[in-house]
Amino acid sequence: MNPSYPVYPYIGKVQQSVTNSATFPPQHQDRQPGIEQLMDPRPIFDNPGYTGNGKLKGKAAIVTGGDSGIGRAVAVAYAKEGADLTIVYLNEHEDAHETKQYVEALGVRCLLLPGDLRIPDTSSKAVKLSVDTYGRLDILVNNAAVQPYTSSILDVSDEQLEDTFRINVFPLFYMTKAALPHLQPGSSIISTTSRVAYEGDEHVLDYSATKGAIVSFTRSLSLSLVGQSIRVNGVAPGPTWTALTVSTYPAEHQHTFGAKIPMGRAGQPFEMAPAYVYLASDDSAYVTGQILHVNGGNIRYT
């Protein structure tokens, strides 16, 4: 593995603090999805002190948006637990290949599928590729998203509103419908919602609405599939240092990003990943229809 990849500092059994406060330098990327390789500093997606215990050994997982950010951290954690991966992403090829290289160095297989999740056929192709290659599908992680920034609801165009829902919400239906015929009892569907589904954010109105929809989707789908012993849950991250952040907010916003959270800082992608491992493993066999809040201590979201 390339030693320049960001990993989490670890001494013995005591984890060092990532940062004492939000001190990211001002920066902005003009395209979504953003590019992780262009960020300064790079997000921390792996904690070398996290040792897998084979909780997902022999399983196969699809992770949308797995090229970078939280999706990349989830892919790495799943690889450590023994799962083979299929990563679906739009066009961030360098980030995706970097993730593939890192994951494969952990001893599992990794497939890459570039494609537009607004198109239902992308989901069908992802499932077919996974099943044809691995002979099974056990875990579906719906994580890909866009997050447009606007000053007012008057600035949310009809086109933007529709596109945000087509990217953030519609693929949950497409992926689930494609995956369901292949999921067995004990399989798990996990979707990424957000703290803004509970608290709101005046500058990402349409994004916040989609994340609320994901909460409702998760709860309703869990009721629909519980009889098949397929569990459906979600994770609601707090502010997390990812390419989505720097491609959303103005450059100066990054300097205090996460500072108002009780812990006084933004999270790093690797800090979200254990929640996804828990929800995919037998450790959560009695958990469905739930949202895990990994948010730096803001209890208002629970």
UniProtKB/TrEMBL annotation:
Belongs to the short-chain dehydrogenases/reductases (SDR) family. Transmembrane segments: none annotated. This is SDR family oxidoreductase. The keyword Cell division does not apply. The keyword Manganese does not apply. Keywords: Oxidoreductase.
